[in-house]
């Protein structure tokens, strides 16, 4: 585990972007992308960089989670988030984008594995330790699956949909085994509200009650934190 601590979320975003920019392979590179507040600065850095440099044609991007049975262009979806912050500003070709949604769900895992699996996956972390949409109790052996969204999750994202009653009740997500099979994992967290769960995830027992705790077992895990998110660690 390689834990890196920075002054603020802007520096965290820059460091996270640099981790991605270090990806260099001759053949295909498969990158799983997170949404939420944690990676916003990372996407800004990447857009700035690739507005001046050519995006590698062998990079392929995979949405790692999504709401179930909603139009992808609906405000609040994970794909809209990525379209607004990354895919759209860089005019990334559709051939390099792999979306997880109702129509691709049944074959998403198989096609990902046929493409060589994930080389790199970026993750945020929920206050309860969820990674992607893998909530507490999801088996560590899970692959891409459908999940019921918790009331806490729906409340957190209510503003994006114009009210909690409009938030979809189910989501789609790559599984914890899918994540652990990735060659590299990057975990990003900012803010004091994430300090306790970061402490549990990185130094506590490895348990399905805290899904992110399984990342302790990954051989190539990098964690980038601001000082507040790292405040519960004894390093």
Radius of gyration: 17 Å
Q: Report the count of strand segments.
A: 10
What pattern of helices and strands is seen along the backbone? Answer: EHEHEEHEHEEHHEHEHE
Question: Structural class of the helix and strand makeup?
Answer: alpha/beta
Contiguous low-pLDDT stretches (5 residues minimum) are: none
The helix count comes to 8
Rounded to the nearest angstrom, the distance between the terminal CA atoms is: 12 Å
Percent of residues in helices comes to 25-40%
Mean pLDDT: 95
Principal-axes shape call? globular
Q: Into which percentage range does the β-strand content fall? A: 15-25%
Indicate the topology:
Layout: E1 2-6, H1 9-21, E2 29-33, H2 40-50, E3 59-63, E4 65-67, H3 78-87, E5 97-98, H4 105-114, E6 120-123, E7 145-148, H5 151-156, H6 158-161, E8 170-173, H7 176-180, E9 184-189, H8 195-203, E10 221-226
Task: List the main descriptive attributes of the protein structure presented here.
alpha/beta; 3-stranded antiparallel beta sheet; 10 strands; 235 residues; single chain; 8 helices
């Amino acid at each position: 585990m390689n834990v890196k601590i920075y002054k603020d979320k802007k520096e965290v975003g820059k460091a996270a972007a640099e981790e991605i920019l270090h990806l260099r392979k001759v053949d295909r590179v498969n990158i799983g992308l997170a949404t939420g507040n944690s990676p916003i600065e990372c996407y800004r850095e990447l857009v700035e960089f690739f507005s001046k440099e050519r995006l590698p044609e062998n990079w392929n991007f995979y949405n790692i989670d999504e709401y179930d049975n909603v139009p992808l262009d609906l405000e609040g979806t994970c794909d809209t988030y990525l379209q607004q912050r990354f895919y759209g500003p860089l005019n990334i070709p559709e051939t390099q984008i792999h979306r997880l949604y109702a129509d691709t769900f049944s074959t998403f895992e198989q096609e990902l594995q046929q493409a060589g699996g994930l080389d790199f996956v970026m993750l945020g972390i929920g206050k309860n330790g969820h990674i992607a949409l893998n909530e507490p109790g999801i088996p560590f052996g899970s692959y891409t699956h459908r999940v019921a969204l918790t009331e806490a999750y729906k409340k957190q994202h209510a503003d994006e949909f114009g009210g909690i009653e409009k938030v979809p009740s189910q989501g789609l997500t790559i599984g914890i085994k899918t994540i652990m099979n990735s060659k590299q994992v990057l975990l990003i967290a900012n803010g004091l509200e994430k300090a306790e769960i970061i402490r549990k995830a990185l130094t506590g027992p490895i348990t399905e009650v805290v899904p992110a705790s399984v990342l302790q077992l990954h051989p190539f895990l990098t964690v980038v934190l601001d000082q507040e998110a790292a405040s519960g660690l004894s390093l």
